[in-house]
Specification:
Order of helices and strands: EHHEEE
Number of domains: 1
Strand content: 25-35%
Structural class: alpha+beta
CATH class: Alpha Beta
Strand order of the largest sheet: 1-4-3-2
CATH architecture: 2-Layer Sandwich
Largest sheet: 4 strands, mixed
Helix content: 25-40%
CATH topology: YaeB-like fold
Radius of gyration: 13 Å
Number of helices: 2
Length: 89
């Protein structure tokens, strides 16, 4: 396991964002994921040693164009992006 926090698409980018060709929207999702990583790293200072329950999945709105579902797993030091939904064209 890595010693630094990060984020990734789970199970992989093709599954989570496949078919979304709005690259500006995807960039906003990834920018917000970076912010969530910084927040998680501050909240779980030593995530690898965390012994509590992992937080539930949460939704994040990306302006009016869509949203994504993510989950923070402190022991993995990861924010997993599980679903991305584009609302408009």
């Amino acid at each position: 396991m890595t010693d630094a926090w990060g984020w990734e698409y789970d199970p992989d980018p093709a599954y989570v964002i496949g078919g979304i060709d709005n690259l500006a929207f995807v960039a906003k999702v990834e920018e917000r994921a970076d912010e969530l990583v910084r927040a998680a790293a501050a909240l779980y200072l030593d995530g690898v040693k965390y012994t509590g329950a992992s937080p539930r999945m949460q939704e994040e709105t990306v302006d009016a164009s869509g949203m994504f579902v993510y989950q923070v797993i402190p022991r993995h030091q990861r924010v997993y992006i599980r679903q991305v939904t584009l609302l408009g064209p």
